[in-house]
C-alpha cells in the first residue's frame, strides 16, 4: 500500500516546500541587490520579491476575452506545483535523501520540462500576439537545450553505474553516496566537459540573459506572461523561484554534493547555491546582451551539444 505520509511529508521541510520557496525568493532578492551594485545603483531591498508576491496576491487576476478561463488559470498552479514536487527530489548530502517512491533522475527530468510547457501553453492561451511569439521562442529554446541536458544526465548516470559494476543508475541518492566515497565529479578532469555543459544549460533553462529571449521585455513585453496578473502571476513568480533552487540544486547534486551532516550541511548547500546563482546568473545578466533566437538555437546545437557528446564518450571509453 502506498504510504502517502511518506510521499508528501518531504514537501513540508527544507529544502522542499516552503523552505525551497523562501530560499528561491531570497536568491532573487540577492540577485537584484548584487546586480544593482554592479551597475552602481541602490537597488531594491532584499525582501522585495516577497513584497511583490504579497502585492500580487491582493490583486485580481484578469482573464483576457476569448481565452479559455479554466486552462488560463490552471497553468500557473501546474507550473508551481511541478517545481514544488521537483524540490522533493533534490537530496542534500548528510541531511536529506528523497524516498524511493518519489522517483529518480528521470522523474526530475520530466518535471523540469513542465515549466517550459506551461509557459508555452500560457502564451498560446492568452490570445496575445506577443504571447504567441513568446510561445514559439520558448519552444525553439527548449528543443535546443534539452539535448545537452540529456547528455549530462546520461554521463553522470553511466559514470556512477559503471563504477559500481553495473550499467547505469538514475538514483540521485546513489550518485551522492558514490561521490561521498570516491570524490566529487567536479574534481575529476574527465568530467569537466559534463560540468561545462551543465553550466551552459542552466542559464537558458532559467531564462537568464543572453537566453531570456521568450520573455524579452523590450521586444515581446514578457511574452507568455503579458496577460497574467494578480495571484496567477504570483504563482509564476513562485515557479521561477522554485525552479532556480531545483536547477541549481541539481547541478550541485550531480557534481559537488559533498558536505557535512546536520544544520551545517544545509548551510553549506545554501552557500553553494548562492555562489553558483551569483556567478551563473547575476554576473552573466549584467555583463551580456540578449541573443536572437536563431543565435541561441545554433549556439546550443554546437558547443553544449558537442561538450555533452564528449563527456558521454569519455565516460564510456574509460569505463
Automatic annotation (TrEMBL):
GO terms for cellular component: plasma membrane. It is found in: Membrane. Its main location: membrane. It holds the Pfam family NADHdh. The keyword Endoplasmic reticulum does not apply. It is a multi-pass membrane protein. Keywords: Membrane, Transmembrane, Transmembrane helix. The chain crosses the membrane at residues 6-27, 71-96, 108-133, 140-158, 190-211, 232-256, 262-284, 296-317. This is NADH-quinone oxidoreductase subunit H. It comes from Sodalis ligni.
